[in-house]
Fold this protein.
Amino acid sequence: MWISFAIGAAFFAGITSILAKCGIKTADSTTATAIRTGVVLVFSWIMVFIAGAQPTIVNVDAKTWLFLILSGIATGASWLCYFKALQLGDINKVVPIDKSSTILTILLAVVILGEDITLLKAGAVAAIAIGTYLMIQRQEISDHQEEKGKGWLVYAVFSAVFASLTAILGKIGISGVESNLGTAIRTGVVLIMAWMIVFVTGKQHTIRQISRRELVFICLSGLATGASWMCYYRALQDGPASAVVAVDKLSILVTIVFSYIVFKERLTPKALAGLVFIVGGTMVMLI
């Protein structure tokens, strides 16, 4: 059953990237992240009440609270980096790096969670690493990308690192709480963190500069994120973290298909080969 939820998480995560890209063409990425987090929070608590999980909040122990909060902080940091990278770079370059967090997550799952790593799984990790490398090589970067510099790459790498920490901390925290409630709690942490950064950086005035069209896309991306999280943390609750994260990263397929349809971003033969490696390695993780 966890596989079905992981696939659902991948689909909605792929849609999220496209909607978010549409919503941050001119809007400040930090402010946009804070707004969409508010949408996710509302969506999360609606799901909590639908599931009737709100009374169980009094049963959440201190350890679970700690790891949910830490997971929320890691998520906030990952989001801020990810959407800044999306704003600066091409979606077909940013997403593969973000999805490479699978590699670090698997290693952390082995070290921290004690999950087994077989020779087959090690080969899958290598395939994902090769695929990521092929998709982001310098010669495949567009002229438009070159003009913007390499800031997007730094943000994308940090996004992947924090995403890995999110998965591990979330796996530990979600084990002691109903998955919808756990998602709602950690979303609250992300919301506080996001708006603190908005005010610390003095970007609150940029809210008025967001067009109605971009605001709609930001809110839609928040709804897609909420749906993705609901599926993701339900899958984490029942399945191994290394496998759940691997399936979730298949969202790259959804993202790339829609980036071609919406933004006309094309994959070169080498990038396509990289995508095959990433998907192949991911599928092997399920064996």
About this structure: The chain is about 80% helix and 0% strand. The first helix runs from residue 2 to 23. Residues 139-147 have pLDDT under 50 and may be disordered. The radius of gyration is 18 Å.
